[in-house]
């Protein structure tokens, strides 16, 4: 088990965003977290990355309790995420955006040195090399000098993934990576996430694009009103009566048969 979520609850005032949610993720798998709007999926990401603390319950990463660990320590441990709304630096180049993503792994910090020592210069050169490799990995090497606001939407989402990869995650959390993508971009995204898995990185993905989720994920957990209503393989999830009723809807049932 790489990540274990045990009996996690999160209340916001009187609202129970998550109630007693338990699931665990195996090393190297692509795990989907799905459910209707407001089901608590992003809240779960916010708890795993310590943007919020659970009201109760436990989160462990490789058997270490990380429930109350600070966010930056969680990044250093090897958990990194992308956001539902793109959060790039719009006026920085694609390359610089990825270079910034490495800050948790560097000693002297990126782009800030005024009096640069030889070792800092070497480190910067290495940071640039790694960023170039990552841009190549996500298929954006020809756009390296473009500012991120000049990239197409699907490219910006891939750039976000490259930036997240720059922190050398063991577990990558993707929050609706296919949102707003056309069919070709979604198909490229599928290939990219599979390549990330092949690198040995575990992927936890929130996604509303059901055909993509069903094709991509090894296992899936389904939330509804903050509670887990099902967990299993894509086939098990597609045939789960409570999921069909709560989430997929009768109309869409045939689509996945
Ligand atoms: N910071 C917050 N303060 C108060 N309520 C919140 C906060 N964050 C989330 N919520 C509430 O918790 C519930 C779960 O929200 P969450 O964003 O986790 O759902 P979601 O499954 O990610 O939805 P979507 O698919 O629409 O992104 C919602 O009712 C939401 O309004």
From TrEMBL:
Q: Return any one Pfam family short name.
A: ABC_tran
Q: Which residues cross the membrane?
A: none
UniProt GO molecular function: ATP binding
Q: Where is the ABC transporter domain?
A: 3-250
The answer to whether the entry has keyword Nucleotide-binding is yes
Matches recorded under SMART domains: AAA
Q: Which InterPro entries match?
A: AAA+_ATPase, ABC_AA/LPS_Transport, ABC_transporter-like_ATP-bd, ABC_transporter-like_CS, BCA_ABC_TP_C, P-loop_NTPase
- Give UniProt keywords alphabetically: ATP-binding, Nucleotide-binding, Transport
Top-level division of the source organism's lineage: Bacteria
Q: What is this protein called?
A: ABC transporter ATP-binding protein
């Amino acid at each position: 088990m790489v990540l274990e979520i045990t009996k996690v609850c999160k209340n916001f005032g009187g609202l129970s965003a998550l109630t007693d949610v338990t699931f665990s993720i195996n090393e190297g798998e692509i795990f989907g977290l799905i459910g209707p709007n407001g089901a608590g999926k992003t809240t779960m990401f916010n708890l795993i990355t310590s943007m919020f603390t659970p009201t109760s319950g436990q989160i462990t990463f490789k058997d270490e309790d990380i429930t109350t660990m600070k966010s930056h320590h969680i990044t250093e441990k090897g958990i990194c995420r992308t956001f539902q709304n793109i959060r790039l630096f719009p006026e920085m180049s694609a390359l610089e955006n990825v270079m910034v993503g490495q800050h948790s792994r560097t000693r002297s910090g990126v782009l800030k040195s005024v009096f640069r020592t030889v070792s800092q210069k070497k480190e910067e050169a290495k940071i640039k090399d790694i960023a170039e490799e990552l841009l190549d990995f996500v298929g954006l090497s020809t756009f390296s000098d473009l500012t991120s606001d000049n990239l197409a939407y699907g490219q910006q989402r891939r750039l976000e993934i490259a930036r997240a990869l720059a922190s050398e995650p063991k577990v990558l959390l993707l929050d609706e990576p296919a949102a707003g993508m056309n069919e070709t971009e979604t198909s490229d995204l599928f290939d990219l996430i599979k390549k990330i898995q092949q690198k040995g990185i575990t992927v936890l993905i929130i996604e509303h694009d059901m055909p993509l989720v069903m094709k991509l994920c090894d296992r899936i957990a389904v939330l509804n009103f903050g509670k887990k209503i099902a967990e299993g393989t894509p086939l098990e999830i597609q045939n789960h009566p409570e999921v069909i009723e709560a989430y997929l809807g009768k109309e869409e049932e045939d689509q996945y048969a």
